[in-house]
């Protein structure tokens, strides 16, 4: 269920919420657990919430705006990284994976199991382009380990937090 405030009809309100979403995503990128080559951040939690609370369109718009800000040189990516080079490095696939993940999270409606399943699927979806891109740098087997397997516990925790937040917001 979308929050009523996020279902605003005006273009200006939509743009404002997308800007706030991109700012939340930029802030969450700075909460990092340094790992190589992919740091663990709180970004995926925010990506899920942008889609789940704002809907697919707003989630997608906020993530696209965030990526554009980073591409233009604003230090919004993890560790303050920015610029086109950041979108060509080992984490680029994960960053681009935020787009379909936010979109899919927008369908997290219905009962607890459906919402949880959609959020988990959205979270897992971002690993497909992430691991595929990372494999170009470190090989597929290592990419699976350092870009997916090591992230499974965090993925489960952040998905559960997103589900709890979504359920609480619906009340």
TrEMBL record:
InterPro entries: BioY. One of its GO terms (molecular function) is biotin transmembrane transporter activity. It is a multi-pass membrane protein. It is found in: Cell membrane. Its main location: membrane. Keywords: Cell membrane, Membrane, Signal, Transmembrane, Transmembrane helix, Transport. Residues 1-26 form the signal peptide. GO terms for cellular component: plasma membrane. The keyword Chloroplast does not apply. The chain crosses the membrane at residues 36-53, 60-81, 87-106, 118-138, 144-166. The keyword Nucleus does not apply. Pfam families: BioY. Belongs to the BioY family. This is Biotin transporter. It comes from Teichococcus deserti.
């Amino acid at each position: 269920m979308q929050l009523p405030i996020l279902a605003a009809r005006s273009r200006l309100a939509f743009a404002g919420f997308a800007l706030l979403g991109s700012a939340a995503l930029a802030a969450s990128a700075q909460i990092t657990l340094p790992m190589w080559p992919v740091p663990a951040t709180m970004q995926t939690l925010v990506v899920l919430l942008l889609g789940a609370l704002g809907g697919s369109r707003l989630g997608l718009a906020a993530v696209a705006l965030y990526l554009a800000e980073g591409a233009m040189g604003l230090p919004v990516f993890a560790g303050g990284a920015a610029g086109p080079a950041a979108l060509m490095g080992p984490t680029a696939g994960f960053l681009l994976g935020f787009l379909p993940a936010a979109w899919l999270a927008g369908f997290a409606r219905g009962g607890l199991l459906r919402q949880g399943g959609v959020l988990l699927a959205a979270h897992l979806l971002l690993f497909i382009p992430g691991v595929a891109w990372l494999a170009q740098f470190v090989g597929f087997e290592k990419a699976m380990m350092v870009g997916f397997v090591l992230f499974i516990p965090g993925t489960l925790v952040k998905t559960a937090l997103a589900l709890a937040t979504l359920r609480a917001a619906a009340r």
